[in-house]
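Why does residue order matter? Because the sequence determines the fold. Keep that principle in mind as you read this record.
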Amino acid sequence: MPDLHSPIELLRPQRIEFGSGTLATIRPWVEERGLKRILVVADAFNASRVDLLGLPGDVTVFGEVKPEPDLPNLEKVLAVAEAMKPDLVIGYGGGSAMDLAKLVAVLPGSGQRLHDVVGPEKVLRRSAALIQVPTTAGTGSEGGTRSLVTDPATQNKLAVQSRHMLADLAVVDPDLTMTVPPAVTAATGVDAMAHCAEAFTSRKSHPIIDLYALEGIRLVGRFLPRAVKDGSDKEARAGLALASMYGGFCLGPVNTTAGHAVAYPLGTRHHIPHGLACALIFPHTLAHNAPAVPEKTALVLEALGLSASQDPKTVLEGAHAFCERLGVEMRLSRLNVPRDDLGTMATEAHAIRRLLDNNPRDLSRGEILAMYEAAY
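Structure:
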């Protein structure tokens, strides 16, 4: 694991507003800068409540963001942006909306297409101001520089990373998450925790990020069961929003590892929501990695309110029970994943080297397949 003297770069939105009622900060921020042509990128539900943002000026709403957005979804919103030439783009929703908003802020008029910018720091510039407003507590995309879009031709995720995609303003108002149903609350909360746990145990882990990571896990352990039980629990919603933001801070300089790599084919091939896929896989990868990072694995369990352990079988059982108690579906067979596709999924997951190469313990294709079989 890297030492204190290991170099690391921390990037944050220029301004972060966190807490109940912070939506009210958006309008004066926009008016101070004289921004007039606004494009809101949202899913259908949040498109129906754009009025909550209190926006001035000429507002266009693209309300067709899909879960696990793909290239055609991106091209559709880019066409809207090319036509109206926004001077402000607002991502309003979960990670899917915020990820598309990042690309909408940088691609129109740049001469670059998505495949030109896949990878780290290939974006040339940004053409519009960018505000991110999360309405779920999961991805932490509001605080990061990455965007993921599925290529339907290959059924793989294309990852873009650029400092030009960092928000000018991130507004994290937990009140927006009060309407999230229990099942989605559970899955997205575990996704936030997985961001933290994977960064905490990564080969690229760093003491600066460990602070965010471990506290994010503690927040999920303390508040996720409460929010699932009572969605109107404002303190629990705020705790999860903070955990999600901390998870987003972990993604930039450290990123995720095997948990996300093994989860991705569930979304790209079988359209299982990302948070649910990560929750289902989390116990298996945490247990696999336990021999390589025993002390940190024990701390993860303790932070979740579980008994500390370094034994892979005990780790698996404890993490699995934590997710199951939240009501998360933990069986691939019940999510209509065909057993005869597990081998192809394992091959695709094993090819995601940008994540697996950071895993603290090597993971073979056969071991990934065994995880899918165990989760079936």
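Strands lie at 15-18, 37-42, 58-62, 88-93, 119-120, 129-134, 146-151, 156-161, 169-172.
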